[in-house]
């Protein structure tokens, strides 16, 4: 009995992979041993394996039972050592899940997926943006890069990477090269606009530099606090800017002059309205803007722009350029139908 306890102590201390290999070898060897000890009861090693597993897992169906003394002695050995061994294995598996969860919460695991969205710097705005993305795209995965000690928010589609986004190792861990877009935010209640935009510029420069080094294209969207800093960001090849302070001021001004306009804009931006702004590929049957406008209207969508050009209504008779990028307002269900018809 003391010998068995000594073996269990050794099993607890050895490495997981070694333990799993030893366990597999032990169970397979036991299948052949019990077959060799009692060939009449266990006619082949598979039946022996069945007996071994039902014994060590305490299932004990009783359909195969050793009859000889030596067989029963080996059965007792299996009962004591085998059950203890598989208990240690299960404990190691549970421990591994705990370690994995801890490493994931602390942002120390690599993200190997593709087509995800990377958010740099956690804030209330970042959280709201994440919720909007997850609502708009039902299959979206979010990877957050921040220097926090652990993930700030628990969600099955949120993955946390701890570190600084100017570090190429951190960018590798977040797999930014495989991301749909990288969104860079500033901290909440930032007072020093120069410092905040400077930090964002340093971050996006590191990301774009990393992309250029790898000869890949990364779509970057940056929150900027002051419009006068935009020229600095253009040199960093930023794809889109969101100007926090000016956006609020513009919205307030429009609401003052055209009362109620802010509610319309906020409803359009919110997923709760049931409609949203979507990017739509050009259909081969569309020759003029009027073709696209009428076809989309019949299908329940409103064509609002070709990229940044909102003057489509004034030039419906003009031909659609090859590099046109249409933006429409419609529901998610309508968008699915439109994409099916354009494929």
UniProtKB/TrEMBL annotation:
Subcellular location, principal: membrane
Gene3D superfamilies in alphabetical order: 1.10.287.70, NAD(P)-binding Rossmann-like Domain
The record, for PANTHER family, names: CALCIUM-ACTIVATED POTASSIUM CHANNEL ALPHA CHAIN, CALCIUM-ACTIVATED POTASSIUM CHANNEL SUBUNIT ALPHA-1-RELATED
Task: Domain (RCK N-terminal): give its ranges.
Answer: 114-248
Q: Which PROSITE patterns match?
A: RCK_N
Identify this protein by name: Potassium channel family protein
Q: Does the keyword Magnesium apply?
A: no
Membrane topology category: Multi-pass membrane protein
Lineage, top-rank taxon, reads Bacteria
Tell me, which GO biological process terms does this entry list?
monoatomic ion transmembrane transport
Arranged from A to Z, the UniProt key words for this protein are: Ion channel, Ion transport, Membrane, Potassium, Potassium channel, Potassium transport, Transmembrane, Transmembrane helix, Transport
Q: What residues form the membrane-spanning segments? A: 17-37, 73-94
Q: Pfam families given for it?
A: Ion_trans_2, TrkA_N
User: Organism, per UniProt?
Assistant: Thalassorhabdus alkalitolerans
Recorded catalytic activity of this chain's protein: K(+)(in) = K(+)(out)
